[in-house]
Amino acid sequence: MDNFKSARYTDTVQLKSIEDLNESSLELSLVHCGKEKCTPLHFVQGERDEIIIHFVFSGKGTFSVGNRIWQLTAGQMFILYPGITTTYISDSEDPWRYGWIAFKGIHTDNILLHCGFSKDNPVVNYDDIQLVSDFIDRILKARKLSFGNDLRRNGLLLELLGCLCEMHSSKTTQNSGHDYSSNIYVKHAIEFISKYYSQSINVTSISEYVGITRAHLNNCFQKELGTTVQSYLIDYRLHQASQLLTSTTDSITEIASQVGYPDPLAFSKAFKKKYQKSPKFYRTLE
């Protein structure tokens, strides 16, 4: 005889969910999932024992972890990690409609990493709202508590997570066979900048050298350094310029050219913005 604990299924206009499912596998098992059309300012706060991924299908809302706040819209997903207090609330004028999956298992860390999630990056974009919505519908339809449906639900969970991994991989790499961690991409980008900063390089040429999109490279820099590629490149060039101003007698125009600024006026403007002094005045103080 199948040995299932009691599960709860809800089917209303606003909420469809299946909860309290049997955790049948140590590797990965669905705990609950559902869809909800939230009322304005629908507020949820607390900690969870399981991992929960929410998918925003329409509308808007706010998600926060600690002091970090995200304004979310359709096509974004956010994750609740076990033991971490989170808050999310629907918009007052355009409340969101979302779906969710909740699961546990011993391989979750690696799966979530390949979906683009980390505790520092709990919000990720996803490409296909209808695809995700259909997966949740199929899981909800397998609500009868039988061994076959238990396998079916967990199979659909794995397939959905596989789709999310593929979505993330297609956006973050040009070659799915070279999916490196963010610190590796940042390291190679910095090496490229330090070698070619005096030339007319930009974010596009740096990302092309590293082999990923501009957006993903910026995400890597934000994660590892807390800044954008463009800001890092500007800071690097201006730091080199400050060294040349105090160690050489080269003209401002020559120094500007040596650090990748063909226009000395643009160089002077950027330098003053960073150091609150003109290059000429900076040289007299050092």
Provide keyphrases for this structure:
disordered N terminus, 286 residues, 10 helices, 4-stranded antiparallel β-sheet, Jelly Rolls, 11 strands
Quick recap of the structure?
The protein is an alpha+beta fold. Helices cover 44% and strands 22% of the residues.
How would you describe what is shown here?
With 286 residues, the protein is α+β, with helices and mostly antiparallel strands. It folds into two domains: 8-172, Sandwich (Jelly Rolls), CATH 2.60.120.280; 182-285, Arc Repressor Mutant, subunit A (Orthogonal Bundle), CATH 1.10.10.60. The protein contains ten helices and eleven strands. The strands form two sheets. The protein has a seven-stranded antiparallel beta sheet with strand order 1-2-3-10-5-8-11, with helices on one face. It has a four-stranded antiparallel beta sheet with strand order 4-9-6-7, with no helix packed on it. Strand 1 (8-11) and strand 2 (15-19) form a beta hairpin. Helix 1 packs across helix 3 and helix 4 packs across helix 6 (214-225). The longest helix is centred in the middle third of the chain and has 26 residues, at 147-172. The termini are far apart. 30% of the residues are buried.
Q: What structural class should be given to the helix and strand makeup? A: alpha+beta
How many E strands?
A: 11
Question: What is the H level of CATH, i.e. the homologous superfamily of the largest domain?
Answer: Regulatory protein AraC
Overall shape: elongated
What's the story with the biggest beta sheet? 7 strands, antiparallel
Radius of gyration, whole Å: 25 Å
* First-to-last CA distance: 84 Å
What is the arithmetic mean of pLDDT?
A: 87
